[in-house]
């Protein structure tokens, strides 16, 4: 598979988001199925695997660690810290002493002696970002972490963190239908500072596959998306013109809507590396097929022209989840 650079970190053009194997998108998959999916991704060229301590919590790191043991030195593992798992739901904690404690736990679960890319999962307003960056810098000097990342951070926070410890990658939601990073300055600052960008939700949390409609029932107990405004039945219907655009292009390119969505992201910048998630080998194959879909500059412009004619309905997450996203720039 094509290789791309996140800062100085080289990874496959598409990574694998591992969260949904264990949590948040319905009941957890069988462990053996999860291991098989991760190892199949590696066999098909994926070298970039994304997890976090809060996924499960903990069990997704354990799954990723076990799955990648046979080829640990040939892959890049990204994990994250920053949620107070033992505190109230959604609470944050990024004190330096806490970071240095939880990294040891993550290393143990991942069965490794270093985390290739360690993100602050959400910006903690109670801890200056300089202290967070300093703590990760110490871990890098100790060899326990190789690269530093931030997730859902503002431009100001990115600049301040980068001044203390070079930031390798920013992770935020970005897709054909979710354009916030284009408008809040985050993509611009990444380009300016030589930071890579990792879109999570690159197929619109499954919506851009074209397989979700107003009749789709998301389990309120096990599927976090059930509480996201954009995925209520009214907005699912209202946003169907986006799917129509993708389907039209998919027919032209002998592809699927999901593949067009991922190909569109890959065409934006050479330092953008999407991490679509799945527990299904069939969906994995579909996602990886996107790297073979080449969109010409004129086709990208045509997609933009069509998208500019429509309105995206519904905020991207629930109010509860948006409270942990840094809003100011």
List keywords for this structure.
TIM Barrel; 329 residues; Aldo-keto reductase; single chain; NADP_OxRdtase_dom; 40% helix; oxidoreductase activity; alpha/beta; two-stranded antiparallel sheet; Aldo-Keto_reductase; 12% strand; seven-stranded parallel beta sheet
Describe this entry's structure for a reader.
The chain has 329 residues and is of the alpha/beta class. It is built from 14 helices and 9 strands. The protein has helices at residues 19-22, 31-43, 59-68, 96-110, 129-141, 155-164, 180-183, 186-193, 233-238, 240-253, 257-268, 281-288, 297-307, 319-322, and strands spanning 3-6, 9-12, 16-17, 48-50, 76-81, 117-120, 148-151, 167-173, 196-200. The strands form 2 sheets. A 7-stranded parallel beta sheet has the order 3-4-5-6-7-8-9. A two-stranded antiparallel ribbon has the order 1-2. Helix 4 (96-110) links the parallel strand 5 and strand 6 (117-120). It is globular.
> Main β-sheet, in a few words?
7 strands, parallel
Structural class: alpha/beta
Report the C-alpha radius of gyration, rounded: 19 Å
CATH superfamily, by name, is: NADP-dependent oxidoreductase domain
Which class in CATH terms? Alpha Beta
Helix percent band: 40-55%
End-to-end Cα distance: 35 Å
Total DSSP E strands: 9
Low-confidence stretches: none
In the sheet with the most strands, the strands line up as: 3-4-5-6-7-8-9
Domain module tally: 1
Write down the overall mean pLDDT.
Answer: 97
CATH A-level architecture = Alpha-Beta Barrel
Q: What is the succession of H and E elements?
A: EEEHHEHEHEHEHEHHEHHHHHH
Proportion of strand residues? 5-15%
Give me the number of helical elements: 14
**CATH topology, anyone?**
TIM Barrel
What characteristic shape results from the CA principal axes? globular
GO molecular function: oxidoreductase activity
Domain NADP-dependent oxidoreductase: 14-304
Keywords: Oxidoreductase
Organism: Paenibacillus amylolyticus
């Amino acid at each position: 598979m094509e290789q791309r650079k996140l800062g100085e970190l080289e990874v496959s053009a598409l990574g694998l988001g591992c969260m949904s194997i264990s949590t948040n998108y319905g009941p957890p998959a069988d462990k053996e199925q999860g291991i098989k999916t991760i190892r199949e991704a590696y066999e098909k060229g994926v070298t970039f695997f994304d997890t976090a301590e809060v996924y499960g919590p903990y069990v997704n790191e354990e799954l990723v660690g076990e799955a990648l043991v046979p080829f640990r030195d040939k892959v890049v593992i990204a994990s994250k810290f920053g949620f107070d798992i033992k505190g109230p739901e959604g609470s944050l904690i990024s004190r330096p002493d806490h970071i240095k404690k939880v990294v040891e736990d993550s290393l143990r679960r991942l069965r490794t002696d270093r985390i290739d890319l360690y993100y602050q999962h959400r910006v903690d307003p109670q801890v200056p970002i300089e202290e967070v960056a300093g703590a990760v810098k110490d871990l890098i000097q100790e060899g326990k972490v190789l690269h530093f990342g931030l997730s859902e951070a503002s431009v100001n926070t990115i600049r301040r963190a980068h001044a203390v410890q070079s930031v390798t990658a920013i992770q935020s939601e970005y897709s054909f239908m979710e354009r916030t990073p284009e408008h809040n300055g985050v993509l611009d600052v990444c380009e300016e500072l030589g930071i890579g960008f990792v879109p999570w939700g690159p197929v619109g949390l499954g919506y851009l596959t074209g397989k979700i409609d107003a009749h789709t029932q998301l389990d309120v107990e096990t599927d976090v998306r059930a509480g996201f405004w954009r995925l209520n039945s009214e907005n699912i219907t209202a946003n169907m013109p986006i799917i129509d655009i993708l389907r039209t292009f998919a027919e032209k390119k002998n592809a699927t809507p999901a593949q067009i969505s991922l190909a569109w992201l890959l065409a934006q910048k050479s330092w953008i590396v999407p991490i679509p998630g799945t527990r299904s080998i069939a969906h994995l194959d579909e996602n990886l097929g996107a790297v073979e879909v080449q969109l010409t500059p004129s086709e990208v412009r045509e997609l933009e022209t069509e998208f500019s004619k429509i309105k995206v309905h519904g905020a991207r997450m629930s109010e509860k989840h948006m409270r942990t996203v840094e809003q100011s720039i």
